[in-house]
Design goal:
- The chain is of the alpha+beta class.
- The protein has one domain: Alpha-Beta Plaits (2-Layer Sandwich).
- The protein has helices at 17-25, 51-63, and strands at residues 3-10, 31-36, 42-47, 70-78, 87-90.
- Strands 4-1-3-2-5 form a five-stranded mixed β-sheet, with helices on one face.
- The longest helix has 13 residues, at 51-63.
- The radius of gyration is 12 Å and the shape is globular.
Length: 91
């Protein structure tokens, strides 16, 4: 299954965005990474074997307190993540 790359912009750095995203991910069967970008945005790459699970995970981020911090999100389909286990924060 293809994976998604989401670039979040807004007030998404210095507010625990990556840690909250990781915590939300623990309730879903998703794998991927989340990291800060040098320009102040956050990049997440995520995949699930179940497309509904992925959709629900992304909705949970938007419906959490993080949703009010997000100004824009750019969603792209990327190749499947290989060799990835779990959902991790990349420093």
């Amino acid at each position: 299954m293809p994976a998604k790359q989401i670039i979040y912009s807004g007030r998404v750095q210095g507010v625990g965005f990556r840690y909250s995203t990781k915590q939300i991910a623990s309730g879903y069967e998703v794998i991927g990474t989340v990291k800060n970008l040098p320009d102040g945005r956050v990049e997440m790459q995520v995949m699930s074997q179940d497309s509904d699970e992925l959709t629900d995970f992304l909705a949970a981020i938007d419906e959490s307190t993080l949703g009010s911090l997000i100004k824009e999100r750019e969603i792209s389909t990327i190749p499947a993540l290989t060799g990835q286990r779990g959902f991790i924060i990349v420093k």
